[in-house]
TrEMBL record, chains A, B:
Chain's role: Part of the phosphoribosylformylglycinamidine synthase complex involved in the purines biosynthetic pathway. Catalyzes the ATP-dependent conversion of formylglycinamide ribonucleotide (FGAR) and glutamine to yield formylglycinamidine ribonucleotide (FGAM) and glutamate. The FGAM synthase complex is composed of three subunits. PurQ produces an ammonia molecule by converting glutamine to glutamate. PurL transfers the ammonia molecule to FGAR to form FGAM in an ATP-dependent manner.
Gene field: purS
GO CC terms, sorted: cytoplasm
Enzyme class: ligase
Pfam families: PurS
Subcellular location as annotated: Cytoplasm
Pathway: Purine metabolism; IMP biosynthesis via de novo pathway; 5-amino-1-(5-phospho-D-ribosyl)imidazole from N(2)-formyl-N(1)-(5-phospho-D-ribosyl)glycinamide: step 1/2
Organism listed in the record: Rhodosalinus halophilus
Protein name: Phosphoribosylformylglycinamidine synthase subunit PurS
Gene3D superfamilies: Phosphoribosylformylglycinamidine synthase subunit PurS
Enzyme Commission no: 6.3.5.3
């Protein structure tokens, strides 16, 4: 089975990487882009029957820095 | 309006970052993780009425390296 974890910086935390992308898009002529936030996505192949709880523990332990990042889990 | 772009390495392209995460999860006792792929997610705030086509052009021009990466666009 698979799970997808999306990790984004929390609102209010400066995102210089996203800001750099926004600036570069503007320089390329994409003028309608008013904001960019960049995060990471982690696709996990899991043993059958793995619970969402266990993926949550992975996020808390390693995948996200919960001081500055939030995460979403999609099981599927 | 918003769009979310997910960029992953194509299948067959080595993903050392994902492999490092898999190894670290194993070391932390999460033994059921058989594979990990890591990618990036880019959330765009767009001017109202922006077409999916334009986001696709952003991906081709800047957001993804289409030689080794594939991308998915979700408008919403």
């Amino acid at each position: 089975m698979k799970a997808r974890v999306t990790v984004m910086l929390k609102d209010g935390v400066l995102d210089p990487q996203g800001e750099a992308v926004r600036h570069a898009l503007g320089a390329l002529g994409f003028s309608g882009v008013t904001g960019v936030r960049q995060g990471k996505v982690i696709e996990l192949d899991l043993a059958p029957g793995t619970e969402r709880d266990e993926v949550e523990r992975m996020c808390e332990a390693l995948l996200a820095n919960t001081v500055i990042e939030r995460y979403e889990i999609e099981m599927g």
